[in-house]
Amino acid sequence: MGKQSELNAAEFPTFLYDQGDRIGLLKRILKALGSPDQKFKIIHICGTNGKGSTAMMITAILKQMGHRVGLFTSPYIGEIYNGIQIDFKNIPSRIFEEKISVIKKLLRTAAFANVKVSEFEAQFLISMLYFAEQRVDYVVLECGLGGELDATNAVATTMYSIFTKISLDHVGILGNNITEIATTKSKIIRHHNVTITAQNQSLEALKVLENEAVSKQAVFLNADRVTITTSQQSKRSKQVHYRALLEHSEQSGTFRFGLAGTYQLENLATVLTWFFDFVKRTSFQQRLDDILAHSLAELVVPGRFETVQQKPKIVLDGGHNPDGISAFVETVQKLYPNAPKLIVNGFLKDKSYEIAVQKLLTLKNSSFIITQPENQQRELSPVKLADVYQKYTNRQFPEFTSPVKAIKQAIMTASPTTVILVVGSFYLLNPIRTYLLSRSEHNGN
């Protein structure tokens, strides 16, 4: 199974998010390391759902345009090295360990007096050192938790601040309502950059983002000026037709798009808004639809409505909060309306899991297997989750503390026509995905 972390918990604590001036500390560390964050242009992505997909699409497009691209994502899928990539290739473990040593040595100096940085902060610092050393042109930088106090907000400046849909998540840490959460996230906006917001952003969030952009004299673009329609081309891809009303012109075209979730079209509108602005600013000359087709037709985003096995069909989706589950349900209803569905489900205890369960129960012809994510601090026990299912269905479903045992049970009980859907926390998806892929490799599939 993929290792969840190569960082020693005693040296790099899991969570230091709100303990003192974390951003001030990280800025000092970056400066002491030679300001690696200033050696490339940064596209900073924040929001609640869709950050990872948006980040990977932008990375794929930049790579197709001939650029060398660093990608920092959180939560990573699989091993810790997957969270730090150049041109979609993981940071080598040897270089990862080298950068940890550099950081530890710096923190032992008198200037830092053995101050602690968290696991996530260390990963961020490692990525900045690696990307600078490897001379990437652009870095696509995904926020971890929030915005204002997120480690990634220690960077000096950014070319773009991109906001996917903002909804209620990490309530109490980021804020108690949409306005407060959006305010926290809006603080990644930098003076004179370009700020982009997703389609269908709530009015509360939109107002906050726009006001912050104005205060920072940033260009503010809304993806709701992009219209997308689709026609199915094959089981694996669809034909996308788009029309974008730009500041002084209109752009339209068609290309093949491979991501399955219906929610990916909303993310795509955000990406297209960025792309057309980026092309304008960099005077790019190639045919735009060719770039989009070559970068997005075969793109796979791990854990976002990802098919990992065909017989039986197994699909993984990291819908882990009510908005994410709503998007997941919409996609399932469109793609598998009548098929028997066996859903393996587990959430973290700090999510609004009861509302999420209610949404999952709207799926017709479905049964459930209940398990828990692999995260000792935040896991929700299968017993507690099963109680919620029983409350709304008056039925008892199988419970497993082990995600791998849960998926084994699902495979054993599924009929040839059953679609197995694994949905919930990425800490649930990680062990199941690793098990299924290693099983597939072992079987030579």
UniProtKB/TrEMBL annotation:
The gene is folC2. It is an enzyme of class 6 (ligase). The keyword Nucleotide-binding applies. One of its GO terms (cellular component) is cytoplasm. The chain crosses the membrane at residues 410-429. It comes from the Bacteria. Residues 303-426 form the Mur ligase C-terminal domain. This is tetrahydrofolate synthase. Keywords: ATP-binding, Ligase, Magnesium, Membrane, Metal-binding, Nucleotide-binding, Transmembrane, Transmembrane helix. Belongs to the folylpolyglutamate synthase family. It catalyses: (6S)-5,6,7,8-tetrahydrofolyl-(gamma-L-Glu)(n) + L-glutamate + ATP = (6S)-5,6,7,8-tetrahydrofolyl-(gamma-L-Glu)(n+1) + ADP + phosphate + H(+). NCBIfam families: folC. It comes from Lactobacillus delbrueckii subsp. bulgaricus (strain ATCC 11842 / DSM 20081 / BCRC 10696 / JCM 1002 / NBRC 13953 / NCIMB 11778 / NCTC 12712 / WDCM 00102 / Lb 14). Residues 45-272 form the Mur ligase central domain. GO terms for molecular function: ATP binding; dihydrofolate synthase activity; metal ion binding; tetrahydrofolylpolyglutamate synthase activity. Its EC number is 6.3.2.17.
